[in-house]
From TrEMBL:
Name of the protein described by the UniProt record: DegV family protein
NCBIfam families associated with the record: DegV (TIGR00762)
Keyword annotations: Lipid-binding
Gene3D superfamilies reported for this sequence: 3.30.1180.10, 3.40.50.10170
PANTHER family: DEGV DOMAIN-CONTAINING PROTEIN DR_1986-RELATED, FATTY ACID-BINDING PROTEIN TM_1468
Xref: InterPro entries: DegV, DegV_C, DegV_domain_contain
C-alpha cells in the first residue's frame, strides 16, 4: 500500500499471508526453538525454512523442549529502513503484549535508532495477541486508507486492540508453566489434572478466570463469556476463534457463537502459530471479541 504511513506487525497477529498482502502490512516473525534448532515462526511467506503449528504440536507431544524468542532489534531496523527506502515517511509498528514478549521493546529500540531526517516510527503495544492484535492492525490500515496522520494511525490500532477481550481454554497449564506465562494461575497447577482452566487476557497478561470440571463445560463458558461481552455496553461486530490442534472444538464454539449472535457476521476460525501454541498447548481454544469503536475517536 503506497502512501506516507506503513503498517508493521509481528507473526503472532496470525493474519493469513494473503490478508497481510492485501492490507499492505509487513509481518516480522518471532523465533521458535525446537530441540535446540531456531527458526522463524511460519508466516506462510514461503521464503524461509520455518516452524509451523504442526511442528510444535508434534514436539510438545513428544515432550521435546520448545521455547520462543523475540525478533532482534536489528531485524526491525532492517524492516523500517526498507520501508523508508520504498518512500514511506512514517511507520506504525503494532505488536503483541509487552507483558508476554519482548517484541515491542525490540521494536522500540529499533525505532529510536532509525528516527530522524523526516522519518518516524510509532510503536504500539497492543496489550493483546492473536486477532486481538490482528484487529488492531486492521484498524491501523483503515486509518491509513482514510488519510490519517501517523499519530492517528497509532491511536486507531491501540484503541481497537485495547477494546478487545480474549478468553482461552487450555487442556493443561503445564505449557504455560514451562514458558513462565502462567501468572496468578500458578496456584492452580497442583489441581491441574482435576480442573479445566479458563483464562482471560487482562491488561496484557494471561490471568486465571474460572476452573470447571469438564472440557465441554469450559467451551460453554467460552461461549457464555463471549456472548456477554458482545452484547454488553458498546457495540461489537468482530469475533474470531483460535485453536491449536483442536479444529472440531473451535468449529463447535464458532457455531454456537453464530447461533447466539447472528448479526455478528463472519467468525473466522484459525489455528494459532507455534509461538502462542508453544505456551497454550494442543487442545487450546480461544475467542477474541473486539468492540467496534470509531478507530479515530477519542
Amino acid at each position: 500500500m503506497a502512501g506516507p504511513v506503513a503498517v508493521v506487525t509481528d507473526s503472532t497477529a496470525y493474519l493469513p499471508a494473503a490478508v497481510s498482502a492485501d492490507l499492505g502490512v509487513t509481518v516480522v516473525p518471532l523465533q521458535v526453538v525446537v530441540g535446540g534448532i531456531s527458526r522463524p515462526e511460519n508466516t506462510d511467506s514461503g521464503t524461509d525454512i520455518t516452524f509451523d503449528a504442526h511442528d510444535v504440536v508434534a514436539a510438545l507431544r513428544a515432550n521435546k523442549t520448545v521455547t520462543t524468542s523475540r525478533p532482534s532489534p536489528q531485524v526491525f531496523v532492517d524492516t523500517y529502513r526498507r520501508l523508508q527506502a520504498r518512500g514511506f515517511s512514517a511507520v506504525v509498528s503494532v505488536h503483541l503484549s509487552g507483558d508476554i514478549s519482548g517484541t515491542v521493546e525490540a521494536a522500540r529500540l529499533a525505532a529510536s535508532e532509525v528516527k530522524g531526517d523526516g522519518f518516524t516510527v510509532e510503536v504500539v503495544d497492543s496489550r493483546s495477541l492473536g486477532m486481538g492484535l490482528g484487529f488492531g492492525v486492521q484498524a491501523a490500515v483503515t486509518a491509513v486508507t482514510a488519510g490519517a496522520a501517523v499519530d492517528e494511525v497509532a491511536r486507531a490500532a491501540a484503541r481497537r486492540s485495547l477494546n478487545s477481550s480474549i478468553y482461552i481454554y487450555v487442556d493443561t497449564l503445564e505449557f504455560l508453566r514451562r514458558g513462565g506465562r502462567i501468572g496468578a494461575a500458578t496456584a492452580w497447577v497442583g489441581s491441574a489434572l482435576t480442573i479445566k482452566p479458563v483464562l482471560a487476557l487482562a491488561d496484557g497478561r494471561l490471568e486465571p478466570l474460572e476452573r470447571v470440571r469438564t472440557t465441554q463445560r469450559a467451551l460453554t463458558r467460552l461461549v457464555e463469556l463471549s456472548v456477554a461481552e458482545a452484547t454488553g455496553e458498546g457495540a461489537t461486530t468482530r469475533i474470531a476463534v483460535h485453536h491449536l490442534s483442536a479444529p472440531e472444538r473451535a468449529d463447535e464454539v464458532a457455531g454456537r457463537l453464530r447461533e447466539h449472535l447472528p448479526a455478528i457476521g463472519e467468525i473466522p476460525v484459525t489455528e494459532v502459530g507455534p509461538v502462542i501454541g508453544a505456551h497454550v498447548g494442543p487442545g487450546a481454544v480461544g475467542v477474541v471479541v473486539a468492540r467496534d469503536l470509531d478507530p479515530l475517536g477519542d
